[in-house]
Amino acid sequence: MACAFRRSIACQLSRVLDLPPENLIKSISAVPISRKEEVADFQLSVDSLLENNSDHSRPDTQVQAKRLAEKLKCDAVVSEISTGQGTVNFKINRELLTKTVLQQVIKDGSKYGLKSELFSGLPQKKIMVEFSSPNVAKKFHVGHLRSTIIGNFIANLKEALGHQVTRINYLGDWGMQFGLLGTGFQLFGYEEKLQSSPLQHLFERLGIHFDEYSGESFYREKSQEVLKLLDSKGLLQKTIQGTAIVDLSGNGDPSSICTVMRSDGTSLYATRDLAAAIDRMDKYNFDTMIYVTDKGQKKHFQQVFQMLQIMGYDWAERCQHVPFGVVQGMKTRRGEVTFLEDVLNEIQSRMLQNMASIKTTKELENPQETAEKVGLAALIIQDFKGLLLSDYQFSWDRVFQSRGDTGVFLQYTHARLYSLEETFGCGYLNEFNAACLQEPQSVSILQHLLRFDEVLYRSSQNLQPRHIASYLLTLSHLAGMAHKTLHIKDSPPEVAGARLHLFRAVRSVLANGMKLLGITPVCRM
Ligand code: ARG
Question: What pTM was estimated for this model as a whole?
Fold first, then answer.
Protein backbone atom coordinates (compact mmCIF):
# COMPACT_ATOMS: atom_id res chain seq x y z
CA MET A 1 0.00 0.00 0.00
CA ALA A 2 1.13 3.51 0.70
CA CYS A 3 4.43 2.29 2.01
CA ALA A 4 5.14 0.09 -1.00
CA PHE A 5 4.67 3.16 -3.18
CA ARG A 6 6.79 5.31 -0.90
CA ARG A 7 9.52 2.73 -1.01
CA SER A 8 9.42 2.49 -4.74
CA ILE A 9 9.69 6.29 -5.09
CA ALA A 10 12.42 6.37 -2.45
CA CYS A 11 14.44 3.78 -4.38
CA GLN A 12 14.45 5.87 -7.51
CA LEU A 13 15.33 8.99 -5.56
CA SER A 14 18.06 7.18 -3.72
CA ARG A 15 19.86 6.45 -6.97
CA VAL A 16 19.70 10.06 -8.05
CA LEU A 17 20.51 11.61 -4.69
CA ASP A 18 22.94 8.96 -3.55
CA LEU A 19 21.22 8.61 -0.19
CA PRO A 20 19.88 5.40 1.38
CA PRO A 21 16.12 4.93 0.66
CA GLU A 22 15.41 4.67 4.42
CA ASN A 23 16.45 8.29 4.84
CA LEU A 24 14.07 9.38 2.14
CA ILE A 25 10.90 7.53 3.05
CA LYS A 26 9.78 9.98 5.71
CA SER A 27 10.21 12.90 3.33
CA ILE A 28 7.66 11.38 0.96
CA SER A 29 4.07 11.93 1.94
CA ALA A 30 0.66 11.23 0.46
CA VAL A 31 -0.94 14.43 -0.80
CA PRO A 32 -4.12 15.51 1.00
CA ILE A 33 -7.05 15.61 -1.39
CA SER A 34 -8.42 18.95 -2.48
CA ARG A 35 -11.97 19.93 -3.36
CA LYS A 36 -10.78 22.30 -6.03
CA GLU A 37 -8.41 20.30 -8.14
CA GLU A 38 -7.02 16.92 -8.88
CA VAL A 39 -3.86 16.34 -6.85
CA ALA A 40 -0.85 14.08 -7.26
CA ASP A 41 -0.66 11.01 -5.03
CA PHE A 42 2.68 11.60 -3.31
CA GLN A 43 5.04 14.45 -2.85
CA LEU A 44 8.60 14.88 -1.79
CA SER A 45 9.29 18.06 0.10
CA VAL A 46 12.63 19.44 -0.98
CA ASP A 47 12.79 21.38 2.28
CA SER A 48 12.68 18.25 4.36
CA LEU A 49 15.44 16.78 2.23
CA LEU A 50 17.59 19.81 2.88
CA GLU A 51 16.89 19.47 6.59
CA ASN A 52 18.70 16.15 6.47
CA ASN A 53 21.53 17.87 4.73
CA SER A 54 24.26 19.49 6.78
CA ASP A 55 24.78 22.16 4.17
CA HIS A 56 22.63 25.05 5.37
CA SER A 57 23.05 27.32 2.40
CA ARG A 58 19.41 26.56 1.42
CA PRO A 59 19.27 27.12 -2.31
CA ASP A 60 15.92 28.05 -3.83
CA THR A 61 13.72 25.02 -3.25
CA GLN A 62 11.69 25.68 -6.38
CA VAL A 63 14.78 25.43 -8.55
CA GLN A 64 15.97 22.40 -6.61
CA ALA A 65 12.65 20.63 -7.11
CA LYS A 66 12.74 21.26 -10.85
CA ARG A 67 16.32 20.07 -11.14
CA LEU A 68 15.54 16.93 -9.19
CA ALA A 69 12.40 16.17 -11.17
CA GLU A 70 14.34 16.37 -14.42
CA LYS A 71 16.58 13.57 -13.27
CA LEU A 72 13.70 11.25 -12.39
CA LYS A 73 11.89 8.92 -14.76
CA CYS A 74 8.44 7.43 -14.87
CA ASP A 75 8.30 3.68 -14.43
CA ALA A 76 5.82 0.88 -13.83
CA VAL A 77 4.72 2.50 -10.56
CA VAL A 78 5.05 6.22 -11.20
CA SER A 79 3.12 7.44 -14.21
CA GLU A 80 3.70 11.19 -13.93
CA ILE A 81 6.27 13.46 -12.29
CA SER A 82 5.68 17.17 -11.79
CA THR A 83 6.75 19.94 -9.44
CA GLY A 84 4.91 22.27 -7.07
CA GLN A 85 5.85 24.77 -4.35
CA GLY A 86 9.17 23.24 -3.36
CA THR A 87 7.89 19.74 -3.99
CA VAL A 88 8.32 16.99 -6.51
CA ASN A 89 4.96 15.35 -7.15
CA PHE A 90 4.33 11.77 -8.15
CA LYS A 91 1.27 10.27 -9.72
CA ILE A 92 0.93 6.53 -9.36
CA ASN A 93 -0.27 4.30 -12.16
CA ARG A 94 -4.05 4.50 -11.68
CA GLU A 95 -4.91 0.83 -11.86
CA LEU A 96 -2.01 -0.13 -9.67
CA LEU A 97 -3.07 2.45 -7.10
CA THR A 98 -6.63 1.14 -7.04
CA LYS A 99 -5.67 -2.50 -6.80
CA THR A 100 -2.96 -2.05 -4.22
CA VAL A 101 -4.92 0.17 -1.87
CA LEU A 102 -8.12 -1.86 -1.93
CA GLN A 103 -6.38 -5.19 -1.60
CA GLN A 104 -4.33 -3.89 1.28
CA VAL A 105 -7.35 -2.53 3.14
CA ILE A 106 -9.11 -5.87 2.87
CA LYS A 107 -6.03 -7.93 3.65
CA ASP A 108 -4.86 -5.94 6.66
CA GLY A 109 -8.35 -5.52 8.10
CA SER A 110 -8.17 -3.83 11.48
CA LYS A 111 -4.40 -3.45 11.05
CA TYR A 112 -4.63 -1.33 7.92
CA GLY A 113 -2.26 1.62 8.23
CA LEU A 114 -0.67 0.22 11.36
CA LYS A 115 1.59 -2.14 9.48
CA SER A 116 3.01 0.75 7.52
CA GLU A 117 6.68 1.30 7.08
CA LEU A 118 6.27 4.52 9.04
CA PHE A 119 5.97 2.37 12.15
CA SER A 120 8.58 -0.20 11.32
CA GLY A 121 11.47 -0.45 13.71
CA LEU A 122 9.29 1.01 16.44
CA PRO A 123 10.41 -0.72 19.64
CA GLN A 124 7.66 -2.34 21.65
CA LYS A 125 7.28 -0.48 24.92
CA LYS A 126 5.59 -0.95 28.26
CA ILE A 127 3.22 1.96 28.54
CA MET A 128 1.05 2.90 31.49
CA VAL A 129 -1.90 5.15 30.86
CA GLU A 130 -3.57 6.57 33.95
CA PHE A 131 -6.92 8.11 33.16
CA SER A 132 -10.49 8.74 34.34
CA SER A 133 -9.49 8.83 38.03
CA PRO A 134 -12.67 10.28 39.54
CA ASN A 135 -13.12 11.10 43.18
CA VAL A 136 -15.13 8.36 44.78
CA ALA A 137 -17.14 10.36 47.26
CA LYS A 138 -17.86 13.16 44.83
CA LYS A 139 -19.76 13.31 41.59
CA PHE A 140 -18.02 12.41 38.39
CA HIS A 141 -17.75 15.64 36.43
CA VAL A 142 -17.12 16.67 32.85
CA GLY A 143 -13.35 16.79 33.40
CA HIS A 144 -13.37 13.13 34.37
CA LEU A 145 -15.47 12.34 31.34
CA ARG A 146 -12.88 14.05 29.16
CA SER A 147 -10.04 12.25 30.90
CA THR A 148 -11.88 8.97 30.32
CA ILE A 149 -12.38 9.36 26.61
CA ILE A 150 -8.95 10.88 25.94
CA GLY A 151 -7.11 8.29 28.03
CA ASN A 152 -9.02 5.50 26.36
CA PHE A 153 -8.05 6.85 22.95
CA ILE A 154 -4.36 7.08 23.88
CA ALA A 155 -4.40 3.56 25.31
CA ASN A 156 -6.18 2.20 22.21
CA LEU A 157 -3.74 3.84 19.85
CA LYS A 158 -0.66 2.68 21.74
CA GLU A 159 -2.03 -0.83 21.90
CA ALA A 160 -2.86 -0.85 18.21
CA LEU A 161 0.75 0.10 17.54
CA GLY A 162 1.85 -3.03 19.32
CA HIS A 163 2.85 -1.63 22.69
CA GLN A 164 2.02 -3.36 25.93
CA VAL A 165 -0.47 -1.05 27.59
CA THR A 166 -1.63 -1.01 31.21
CA ARG A 167 -4.70 1.08 31.95
CA ILE A 168 -4.94 2.48 35.43
CA ASN A 169 -7.82 4.20 37.14
CA TYR A 170 -6.45 6.04 40.15
CA LEU A 171 -9.42 6.90 42.31
CA GLY A 172 -9.56 9.90 44.56
CA ASP A 173 -10.55 8.17 47.74
CA TRP A 174 -8.50 9.97 50.33
CA GLY A 175 -10.30 10.29 53.61
CA MET A 176 -12.87 7.62 52.80
CA GLN A 177 -13.48 5.14 55.56
CA PHE A 178 -13.86 2.28 53.11
CA GLY A 179 -10.63 3.19 51.42
CA LEU A 180 -8.72 0.52 53.29
CA LEU A 181 -7.05 -0.99 50.34
CA GLY A 182 -5.18 -4.00 51.61
CA THR A 183 -3.10 -5.99 49.15
CA GLY A 184 -5.11 -8.29 46.98
CA PHE A 185 -8.16 -6.69 48.40
CA GLN A 186 -7.87 -3.53 46.48
CA LEU A 187 -11.20 -3.43 44.88
CA PHE A 188 -13.41 -4.46 47.68
CA GLY A 189 -15.89 -1.80 48.50
CA TYR A 190 -15.30 -0.03 45.22
CA GLU A 191 -16.44 -2.78 43.01
CA GLU A 192 -19.95 -2.75 44.34
CA LYS A 193 -20.07 0.98 44.31
CA LEU A 194 -18.77 1.13 40.77
CA GLN A 195 -21.00 -1.57 39.45
CA SER A 196 -24.14 0.27 40.27
CA SER A 197 -22.77 3.62 39.19
CA PRO A 198 -23.24 5.34 35.84
CA LEU A 199 -19.47 5.31 35.61
CA GLN A 200 -19.39 1.59 35.15
CA HIS A 201 -22.13 1.92 32.65
CA LEU A 202 -20.09 4.43 30.68
CA PHE A 203 -17.05 2.15 30.69
CA GLU A 204 -19.12 -0.77 29.34
CA ARG A 205 -20.53 1.18 26.36
CA LEU A 206 -17.42 2.80 25.53
CA GLY A 207 -15.83 -0.64 25.85
CA ILE A 208 -13.31 0.70 28.33
CA HIS A 209 -11.58 -1.59 30.76
CA PHE A 210 -8.94 -0.97 33.37
CA ASP A 211 -6.14 -3.33 34.26
CA GLU A 212 -5.74 -1.76 37.63
CA TYR A 213 -7.93 0.23 39.94
CA SER A 214 -5.98 1.86 42.69
CA GLY A 215 -6.65 4.78 44.90
CA GLU A 216 -4.87 7.42 46.86
CA SER A 217 -5.62 5.65 50.12
CA PHE A 218 -3.62 2.68 48.90
CA TYR A 219 -0.53 4.83 49.33
CA ARG A 220 -1.03 5.79 52.96
CA GLU A 221 1.97 3.84 54.26
CA LYS A 222 4.06 4.19 51.14
CA SER A 223 3.74 7.97 51.39
CA GLN A 224 5.33 7.81 54.81
CA GLU A 225 8.24 5.94 53.25
CA VAL A 226 8.51 8.63 50.60
CA LEU A 227 8.70 11.28 53.33
CA LYS A 228 11.48 9.34 55.04
CA LEU A 229 13.33 9.00 51.78
CA LEU A 230 13.04 12.72 51.04
CA ASP A 231 14.30 13.43 54.54
CA SER A 232 17.24 11.05 54.24
CA LYS A 233 18.26 12.78 51.02
CA GLY A 234 18.15 16.14 52.74
CA LEU A 235 15.33 17.37 50.53
CA LEU A 236 12.67 17.79 53.21
CA GLN A 237 12.32 21.07 55.08
CA LYS A 238 10.12 21.53 58.13
CA THR A 239 8.24 24.80 58.42
CA ILE A 240 7.31 26.66 61.58
CA GLN A 241 3.71 25.57 61.07
CA GLY A 242 4.89 22.00 61.39
CA THR A 243 4.32 21.06 57.74
CA ALA A 244 7.10 19.76 55.51
CA ILE A 245 7.99 21.07 52.08
CA VAL A 246 10.35 20.40 49.20
CA ASP A 247 11.92 23.53 47.76
CA LEU A 248 12.34 22.73 44.09
CA SER A 249 14.15 25.92 43.14
CA GLY A 250 16.47 25.76 46.14
CA ASN A 251 16.09 29.50 46.71
CA GLY A 252 12.82 29.66 48.56
CA ASP A 253 10.82 30.88 45.56
CA PRO A 254 7.27 30.25 46.81
CA SER A 255 6.04 29.17 43.37
CA SER A 256 8.42 26.21 43.37
CA ILE A 257 7.63 24.99 46.82
CA CYS A 258 5.67 21.80 47.15
CA THR A 259 4.09 20.85 50.46
CA VAL A 260 4.40 17.13 51.05
CA MET A 261 3.35 16.70 54.69
CA ARG A 262 0.64 18.25 56.83
CA SER A 263 1.37 19.35 60.36
CA ASP A 264 -0.29 16.19 61.68
CA GLY A 265 2.24 14.11 59.75
CA THR A 266 -0.14 12.90 57.05
CA SER A 267 0.62 13.00 53.34
CA LEU A 268 -0.72 15.26 50.58
CA TYR A 269 -1.92 14.65 47.03
CA ALA A 270 1.61 15.15 45.65
CA THR A 271 3.19 12.81 48.20
CA ARG A 272 0.78 10.08 47.26
CA ASP A 273 1.53 10.61 43.59
CA LEU A 274 5.24 10.18 44.33
CA ALA A 275 4.50 6.95 46.18
CA ALA A 276 2.21 5.73 43.38
CA ALA A 277 4.78 6.45 40.66
CA ILE A 278 7.56 4.64 42.56
CA ASP A 279 5.25 1.72 43.24
CA ARG A 280 4.27 1.44 39.58
CA MET A 281 7.89 1.53 38.51
CA ASP A 282 8.66 -1.33 40.91
CA LYS A 283 5.69 -3.28 39.76
CA TYR A 284 5.69 -2.69 36.00
CA ASN A 285 9.11 -1.33 35.08
CA PHE A 286 7.41 0.91 32.54
CA ASP A 287 9.02 2.70 29.62
CA THR A 288 6.44 5.47 29.60
CA MET A 289 3.76 6.58 32.01
CA ILE A 290 1.07 8.94 30.76
CA TYR A 291 -1.27 10.86 33.09
CA VAL A 292 -4.40 12.34 31.56
CA THR A 293 -5.98 15.19 33.53
CA ASP A 294 -7.25 18.71 33.03
CA LYS A 295 -4.68 21.42 32.55
CA GLY A 296 -5.30 22.73 36.05
CA GLN A 297 -3.00 19.97 37.28
CA LYS A 298 -0.10 20.91 35.05
CA LYS A 299 1.97 22.40 37.80
CA HIS A 300 1.20 19.51 40.12
CA PHE A 301 2.63 16.99 37.68
CA GLN A 302 5.61 19.18 36.85
CA GLN A 303 6.45 19.25 40.53
CA VAL A 304 5.90 15.53 41.03
CA PHE A 305 8.18 14.67 38.09
CA GLN A 306 10.78 17.14 39.29
CA MET A 307 10.74 15.69 42.79
CA LEU A 308 11.20 12.18 41.43
CA GLN A 309 14.14 13.50 39.45
CA ILE A 310 15.90 15.07 42.44
CA MET A 311 15.19 11.97 44.50
CA GLY A 312 17.45 10.26 42.00
CA TYR A 313 14.87 8.46 39.89
CA ASP A 314 16.14 8.95 36.36
CA TRP A 315 13.02 7.34 35.00
CA ALA A 316 11.12 10.50 35.96
CA GLU A 317 11.70 11.58 32.37
CA ARG A 318 9.57 8.67 31.24
CA CYS A 319 6.56 10.28 32.90
CA GLN A 320 4.36 12.50 30.82
CA HIS A 321 1.32 14.60 31.60
CA VAL A 322 -1.28 15.00 28.86
CA PRO A 323 -3.34 18.03 29.87
CA PHE A 324 -6.68 19.01 28.39
CA GLY A 325 -8.84 22.12 28.44
CA VAL A 326 -12.13 22.95 30.08
CA VAL A 327 -15.54 22.19 28.57
CA GLN A 328 -17.86 25.12 29.13
CA GLY A 329 -21.60 25.24 29.19
CA MET A 330 -22.48 21.57 29.21
CA LYS A 331 -26.03 22.02 30.43
CA THR A 332 -28.83 19.52 30.37
CA ARG A 333 -32.49 20.43 30.38
CA ARG A 334 -32.23 20.17 34.13
CA GLY A 335 -29.46 22.72 34.38
CA GLU A 336 -25.68 22.90 34.52
CA VAL A 337 -24.24 19.41 34.39
CA THR A 338 -21.74 18.05 36.71
CA PHE A 339 -23.19 14.61 36.79
CA LEU A 340 -22.31 11.86 34.44
CA GLU A 341 -25.69 10.19 34.64
CA ASP A 342 -27.31 13.42 33.48
CA VAL A 343 -25.03 13.59 30.48
CA LEU A 344 -25.71 9.99 29.56
CA ASN A 345 -29.46 10.37 29.96
CA GLU A 346 -29.48 13.57 27.98
CA ILE A 347 -27.49 11.95 25.17
CA GLN A 348 -29.88 9.07 25.01
CA SER A 349 -33.07 11.04 25.05
CA ARG A 350 -31.88 13.65 22.58
CA MET A 351 -30.60 10.97 20.25
CA LEU A 352 -33.82 8.96 20.44
CA GLN A 353 -35.71 12.08 19.56
CA ASN A 354 -33.39 12.76 16.63
CA MET A 355 -33.61 9.23 15.39
CA ALA A 356 -37.38 9.24 15.49
CA SER A 357 -37.24 11.39 12.39
CA ILE A 358 -35.29 8.74 10.48
CA LYS A 359 -37.64 6.13 9.12
CA THR A 360 -35.51 3.04 9.74
CA THR A 361 -35.38 3.75 13.46
CA LYS A 362 -38.72 2.06 13.97
CA GLU A 363 -37.24 -1.22 12.86
CA LEU A 364 -34.33 -1.05 15.27
CA GLU A 365 -34.14 -3.92 17.70
CA ASN A 366 -32.72 -1.87 20.48
CA PRO A 367 -33.18 1.83 19.81
CA GLN A 368 -31.90 2.79 23.27
CA GLU A 369 -28.62 1.05 22.73
CA THR A 370 -28.18 2.57 19.28
CA ALA A 371 -29.08 6.00 20.60
CA GLU A 372 -26.41 5.69 23.21
CA LYS A 373 -23.71 4.57 20.78
CA VAL A 374 -24.53 7.33 18.35
CA GLY A 375 -24.75 9.86 21.16
CA LEU A 376 -21.38 8.91 22.57
CA ALA A 377 -19.88 9.14 19.12
CA ALA A 378 -21.28 12.66 18.93
CA LEU A 379 -19.75 13.57 22.26
CA ILE A 380 -16.36 12.07 21.39
CA ILE A 381 -16.08 13.75 18.01
CA GLN A 382 -17.07 17.10 19.46
CA ASP A 383 -14.30 16.64 21.99
CA PHE A 384 -11.68 15.39 19.56
CA LYS A 385 -12.14 17.96 16.83
CA GLY A 386 -9.87 20.54 18.38
CA LEU A 387 -6.60 20.53 20.26
CA LEU A 388 -6.90 18.72 23.56
CA LEU A 389 -5.53 21.69 25.40
CA SER A 390 -8.14 24.11 24.09
CA ASP A 391 -11.21 24.93 26.11
CA TYR A 392 -14.42 24.66 24.16
CA GLN A 393 -18.00 25.72 24.38
CA PHE A 394 -20.33 22.79 24.44
CA SER A 395 -23.50 22.87 22.36
CA TRP A 396 -25.99 20.03 22.15
CA ASP A 397 -27.32 21.29 18.85
CA ARG A 398 -23.94 21.33 17.23
CA VAL A 399 -23.04 17.95 18.68
CA PHE A 400 -26.06 16.26 17.20
CA GLN A 401 -26.24 17.68 13.70
CA SER A 402 -26.50 14.71 11.41
CA ARG A 403 -24.92 16.46 8.42
CA GLY A 404 -22.15 18.55 9.87
CA ASP A 405 -18.80 17.39 11.12
CA THR A 406 -20.22 15.29 13.90
CA GLY A 407 -20.05 11.82 15.34
CA VAL A 408 -23.66 11.35 14.28
CA PHE A 409 -22.56 11.85 10.70
CA LEU A 410 -19.80 9.24 11.09
CA GLN A 411 -22.26 6.73 12.52
CA TYR A 412 -24.78 7.53 9.84
CA THR A 413 -22.18 6.99 7.11
CA HIS A 414 -21.08 3.74 8.66
CA ALA A 415 -24.64 2.45 8.89
CA ARG A 416 -25.36 3.47 5.31
CA LEU A 417 -22.30 1.69 3.97
CA TYR A 418 -23.17 -1.34 6.01
CA SER A 419 -26.65 -1.49 4.56
CA LEU A 420 -25.21 -1.16 1.08
CA GLU A 421 -23.20 -4.31 1.62
CA GLU A 422 -26.20 -6.03 3.11
CA THR A 423 -28.44 -5.10 0.22
CA PHE A 424 -26.07 -6.11 -2.52
CA GLY A 425 -24.29 -8.90 -0.74
CA CYS A 426 -20.68 -9.86 -1.07
CA GLY A 427 -21.13 -12.01 -4.14
CA TYR A 428 -19.32 -9.50 -6.27
CA LEU A 429 -16.46 -8.99 -3.95
CA ASN A 430 -13.86 -11.62 -4.67
CA GLU A 431 -12.52 -10.11 -7.82
CA PHE A 432 -12.80 -6.58 -9.04
CA ASN A 433 -11.74 -4.69 -12.07
CA ALA A 434 -9.60 -1.72 -11.08
CA ALA A 435 -10.28 -0.04 -14.41
CA CYS A 436 -13.87 0.51 -13.24
CA LEU A 437 -12.81 2.85 -10.45
CA GLN A 438 -11.30 5.76 -12.30
CA GLU A 439 -13.92 8.49 -11.74
CA PRO A 440 -12.64 11.49 -9.77
CA GLN A 441 -14.83 10.45 -6.77
CA SER A 442 -13.20 7.03 -6.66
CA VAL A 443 -9.72 8.42 -7.07
CA SER A 444 -10.22 10.93 -4.25
CA ILE A 445 -11.30 8.14 -1.94
CA LEU A 446 -8.31 6.01 -2.87
CA GLN A 447 -5.97 8.93 -2.36
CA HIS A 448 -7.50 9.57 1.00
CA LEU A 449 -7.21 5.92 2.03
CA LEU A 450 -3.57 6.13 1.05
CA ARG A 451 -2.95 8.67 3.80
CA PHE A 452 -4.35 6.76 6.73
CA ASP A 453 -0.97 5.57 7.97
CA GLU A 454 0.40 9.11 8.00
CA VAL A 455 -2.56 10.31 9.99
CA LEU A 456 -2.13 7.54 12.53
CA TYR A 457 1.54 8.36 12.67
CA ARG A 458 0.88 12.02 13.39
CA SER A 459 -1.60 11.22 16.16
CA SER A 460 0.80 8.76 17.69
CA GLN A 461 3.55 11.38 17.71
CA ASN A 462 1.66 14.16 19.45
CA LEU A 463 -1.16 12.15 21.09
CA GLN A 464 -3.77 14.43 19.50
CA PRO A 465 -6.88 12.60 18.27
CA ARG A 466 -7.94 15.47 16.02
CA HIS A 467 -5.89 14.21 13.05
CA ILE A 468 -7.84 10.97 13.05
CA ALA A 469 -11.18 12.67 13.76
CA SER A 470 -10.83 15.06 10.86
CA TYR A 471 -9.56 12.30 8.58
CA LEU A 472 -12.68 10.24 9.28
CA LEU A 473 -14.98 13.20 8.72
CA THR A 474 -13.39 13.84 5.34
CA LEU A 475 -13.66 10.15 4.50
CA SER A 476 -17.36 10.26 5.34
CA HIS A 477 -17.93 13.33 3.18
CA LEU A 478 -16.15 11.63 0.29
CA ALA A 479 -18.23 8.51 0.80
CA GLY A 480 -21.41 10.60 0.81
CA MET A 481 -20.51 12.24 -2.49
CA ALA A 482 -19.48 8.96 -4.06
CA HIS A 483 -22.67 7.33 -2.88
CA LYS A 484 -24.67 9.90 -4.80
CA THR A 485 -22.89 9.38 -8.11
CA LEU A 486 -21.39 5.90 -8.10
CA HIS A 487 -24.58 3.88 -8.24
CA ILE A 488 -24.57 0.18 -7.73
CA LYS A 489 -28.11 -0.65 -8.66
CA ASP A 490 -28.54 -0.74 -12.45
CA SER A 491 -24.78 -0.71 -13.08
CA PRO A 492 -23.15 -3.55 -15.03
CA PRO A 493 -21.99 -6.29 -12.62
CA GLU A 494 -18.34 -5.49 -13.14
CA VAL A 495 -18.81 -1.83 -12.28
CA ALA A 496 -21.16 -2.59 -9.40
CA GLY A 497 -18.67 -5.10 -7.99
CA ALA A 498 -15.77 -2.68 -8.14
CA ARG A 499 -17.82 0.05 -6.47
CA LEU A 500 -18.96 -2.27 -3.72
CA HIS A 501 -15.35 -3.12 -3.15
CA LEU A 502 -14.50 0.55 -2.79
CA PHE A 503 -17.36 1.18 -0.37
CA ARG A 504 -16.43 -1.83 1.67
CA ALA A 505 -12.88 -0.52 2.00
CA VAL A 506 -14.21 2.85 3.14
CA ARG A 507 -16.38 1.24 5.77
CA SER A 508 -13.51 -0.88 7.01
CA VAL A 509 -11.19 2.10 7.48
CA LEU A 510 -13.98 4.19 8.94
CA ALA A 511 -14.75 1.48 11.49
CA ASN A 512 -11.06 1.04 12.37
CA GLY A 513 -10.61 4.73 12.96
CA MET A 514 -13.82 5.06 14.97
CA LYS A 515 -12.81 2.18 17.21
CA LEU A 516 -9.44 3.76 17.87
CA LEU A 517 -11.22 6.89 18.99
CA GLY A 518 -13.36 4.82 21.33
CA ILE A 519 -16.52 4.81 19.22
CA THR A 520 -18.53 1.65 18.56
CA PRO A 521 -19.74 1.81 14.96
CA VAL A 522 -23.43 1.03 14.53
CA CYS A 523 -24.79 -0.98 11.62
CA ARG A 524 -28.25 0.58 11.71
CA MET A 525 -29.70 3.79 12.97
N1 ARG B 1 -8.74 12.30 41.33
C2 ARG B 1 -8.07 13.44 40.80
C3 ARG B 1 -9.07 14.55 40.51
O4 ARG B 1 -10.23 14.30 40.33
C5 ARG B 1 -7.34 13.12 39.53
C6 ARG B 1 -6.20 12.17 39.69
C7 ARG B 1 -5.19 12.33 38.63
N8 ARG B 1 -4.10 11.42 38.76
C9 ARG B 1 -3.10 11.53 39.59
N10 ARG B 1 -2.19 10.58 39.58
N11 ARG B 1 -2.98 12.54 40.40
O12 ARG B 1 -8.70 15.69 40.44
Answer: 0.93
pLDDT score of 184: 36
DSSP string, 170-200: EEB-TT-TT----TT-TTTTHHHHHHTSHHH
Give residue 190's pLDDT band: very low, low, confident or very high (50, 70, 90): low
Distance 370 CA to ligand 1 centre (A): 32
Ligand 1 site-directed mutation target among 133, 171, 218, most atoms within 8 Å of CB: 133
pLDDT above 90 for 31: yes
How does pLDDT run across 262-279, given as a tens digit for each residue?
Answer: 999 999 999 999 999 999
Measured in angstroms, how far is the CA atom of residue 154 from the centroid of ligand 1?
17
Nearest CA to ligand 1 atom 6: 133
- Cα 6 to Cα 28, 40, 468: the distances in Å are 6, 13, 21
DSSP 267: B
Give the C-alpha separation, 148 to 395, whole Å: 20
Distance of alpha carbon 315 from alpha carbon 287, whole angstroms? 8
